[in-house]
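Format notes (please read before filing issues)

Several people have asked whether sequences and structure tokens are stored in separate files. They are not. Every record keeps both together, in the order shown below: the sequence lines, then the token lines. Line labels are part of the format and must not be stripped during preprocessing.
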Amino acid sequence: MPSRDFPTPLSQAWVDNARAWLASPGEPLVPRGASTVMVVRDSSDGPMVFVQRRVSSMAFAPSMFVFPGGGVDAQDGSADLDPAEVARLAERMQLTAQEATPLLAAALREVEEECGLRLDVADLVPRAHWVTPPFEKRRYDTWFFAAPMPHGQEALGTTTETDHDAWVTPKSLLTAYAEGRAVMLPPTVVALEQLARFGSVADFLADAPLLTVVSPELVDLGDRLVMRSDIP
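Then the structure lines:
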């Protein structure tokens, strides 16, 4: 797998925490299961994706552009989902149905809570699996899914955790990221780059990428820190 270095967030508190970990690594937190969803729709400029910007007061990923999602809650494990669809998706994710159920349920619940969309489990397409680096004070074992925009529904910002939401082409947000006008974590950047390769939502959703887990490694290059990731 190709290795790639990503710049670290421009936050002195983040840098201080990262350097302290490099100087004296501690016991990493066990990551919490989480799910996030790229809700996509077609446009004359190609596929677009719904994104939100987290408020600056958030403890994890403040002021960053993200896809709707969040951590698995206790009730997600007992969600009433179509067993056949759970089994199909669990096989694709190389998990048991019991392991996959809370992740799938969290994806559906978070999308409805954060942007008012009601998806079906059959809509979910696994795209990637990332784990937050061990030095972070909040860690997540996150599955990324894609899903088509449901017909007749409208995506809205319905959470106090974000201060901006929009439909964007991947190219436009990646340009803003490159110019320093948008802040994103590596998984979001990679997901947008992958979406940008497709000319339609149908082609994107038909894609079946490798689902090898990615866990960025903190590396000190002397003049700067980077997060080195092996991208499938």
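For reference, the curators noted about this record: The chain has a mean pLDDT of 91. The helical segments are 12-23, 83-93, 97-115, 170-178, 186-195, 201-206.
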